[in-house]
Amino acid sequence: xxxxxxxxxxxxxxxxxxxxxxxxxxxxxxxxxxxxxxxxxxxxxxxxxxxxxxxxxxxxxxxxxxxxxxxxxxxxxxxxxxxxxxxxxxxxxxxxxxxxxxxxxxxxxxxxxxxxxxxxxxxxxxxxxxxxxxxxxxxxxxxxxxxxx
Length: 149
Hints:
With 149 residues, the protein is mostly beta strands. It folds into two domains: 53 residues, CATH 2.40.50.140; 57 residues, CATH 2.40.50.140. The protein is built from one helix and twelve strands, in the order E-E-E-E-E-H-E-E-E-E-E-E-E. The strands form three sheets. The chain has a five-stranded antiparallel β-sheet. Strands 10-9-8-11-12 form a five-stranded antiparallel β-sheet, with no helix packed on it. A two-stranded antiparallel sheet has the order 1-2. The mean pLDDT is 88.
């Protein structure tokens, strides 16, 4: 049996061959709800909602999740032997538009889009009727606009 294995700590991938009857010890993963508190440079500070324990993760560890983090956001933390190996965002987040060009009445092209910068620094394509100050629902899996609230 040929299997691709990924090192959850370092991120590297390796292919290995195993016999059909070989046994493995199962990794025990812990999942807990956490709340994003604030950013300090490249460090992102969180708090576990049950124990109120505070900890921080670097932007490299969080990867693309940093584009959706705003104060008070609840997400899930996955740990192995006390070390964070990943965070899982909610499917959608509501973010405020801080910068976009105004849409004009003459812009009636079906599906017309324009860029909009959100409060987290993420820039996405939005319909032309979206204005600065609007709150948008964004899909965290694709990074796409879903609706205006």
